[in-house]
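Appendix B, Record 12. Input sequence as logged:
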Amino acid sequence: MVRDLEGALPLWEDKFPVDEVLEVEESFEVELPEYPGILWLGRPDRVVSAMKQVWHTQRRGLAASMNFGTYVVLAKRHYHEHLYAEHLARKYCKPFKKRSKLKYRTYVGKKNEATKTAAEMFWQGPMSVNLDSGLHKAVMHSMAQHVNDMKLTEHLWELDQYIPPPNEKMNGGYGGNAMDPYFRVLVGEISLDDDTWFKDRVDMYEVQDAAD
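Logged structural output:
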C-alpha cells in the first residue's frame, strides 16, 4: 500500500450515497449520428445510480500544489467526460453527472509542512454535462476535429511519407534537455510502428462478449 494512504483511507467518508453500482470499467464502442464514420471508444471507471441520476465516479489523486477549484473548472472540458455522457445517457436513459474524489498528500513532505487534515485531503465535486449545451457541442466538435486531423495525417503518410510539423516545444527538441520517442521519430531513429516505443492500447477498450 502507498504509505501516504495508510492514515488517510480510514478518514474518507463518501458524501454521495450510491443506490446501485451499474458497471465498473466496462468498455464501450459507440458511433454517434452527429459524427458518422467515427467509432468512439471508452471505459468509464465506475458508473453508479444515485439520486435518480447516472454518475461517472472517478477517484483522482492530485499533487498538493493543485488547486481543487481550478481542477474542477478545467474538468468542464475533459474530453472523456463528455464522451461518457453521450454514451451513458443513451444507455441508461437518465441525466448524466460526474463526481470526483480528490486527494491531497497526507504525510509531511517538506520542512515545516504539517500533515493535511481530512477536510484538506478529500474533496468531492459533482459536475453536470448538459448534452444540449453549447459547451458540450463545442467539446464534441473539438474531438471530431482531432480525429479528422489524425485521418489526414495518416493519409499523407501513406501517400508520401509526409510528417506534419510538430510542436517543437513539446517534443524535447526545442531547447529541451531530453529526447522523447516522438523526437526520435522526427529525426528518423525509430518508426511509429515500433512496438518497443509505442504500444497499441486499443485492446483495453475491447468490448467483451456477453457470453464470456
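The longest strand covers residues 53-61.
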